[in-house]
Amino acid sequence: MDNTKNAGINKELKFDDAVIAKIVGITCNEVEGVYSLEGGMMANMTDLFRKDEDPTEGVDVDLSDDQNVSVSLDATVRYGENAPEIFNKVTMAIVKNVRQMTGLNVTEVKMTVKDMLTKDEIARNEAKNKDADKEKDLQPA
């Protein structure tokens, strides 16, 4: 990214796609109305067996050159929320955070809404996650 010579020092800063995906994933999960980036109930069920959540799940980035990034997301949003408004908030937050943390330009954001969960579905998912966490804690290491 920064291939300039400064005082005789050759400098080069690059970012792995996983770093950009992590920034995008964490950013999206901070936007109100986004439930998850796992892409629906089935992916949420597989997450029950993972100890730590992966912020890059449901995020695909393409760093076409060392300056421009395109982002694709598979999201689950809360039922009753305005999906286009959520998408606009997600897009603005991604562009801002990626630029601020890396200096890279986000040139494209695509989001596929894989599911919309009601309050009841969210409550059931969270109860299952708590039960799974308790079971993991009881299992020997």
Task: Summarize this structure briefly.
It contains 4 helices and 6 strands, in the order ββαβαββαβα. It has 141 residues and is α+β, with helices and mostly antiparallel strands.
Q: Assembly state here?
A: single chain
Beta-strand percent range = 25-35%
How large is the radius of gyration? 18 Å
* Through-space gap between termini: 43 Å
- How would you state the average pLDDT, rounded? 84
> Helix proportion of residues, in percent?
40-55%
Low-pLDDT stretches are: 40-51
The coarse silhouette is: flat
Secondary structure class reads: alpha+beta
Count of helical stretches: 4
Structure summary, number of beta strands:
6
Topology:
Blueprint: E1 5-6, E2 9-10, H1 17-29, E3 34-36, H2 41-47, E4 59-63, E5 68-78, H3 83-102, E6 105-117, H4 119-138
Parallel strand pairs: 5-6
Antiparallel strand pairs: 1-2, 3-5, 4-5
Task: Characterise this structure.
43% of the residues lie in helices and 26% in strands. The longest helix has 20 residues. Strand 1 and strand 2 form a beta hairpin. Strands 3, 4, 5 and 6 form a four-stranded mixed beta sheet that branches. The chain has a two-stranded antiparallel ribbon with strand order 1-2. The relative contact order is 0.19. It has four helices and six strands. With 141 residues, it is an alpha+beta fold. Helix 1 crosses helix 3.
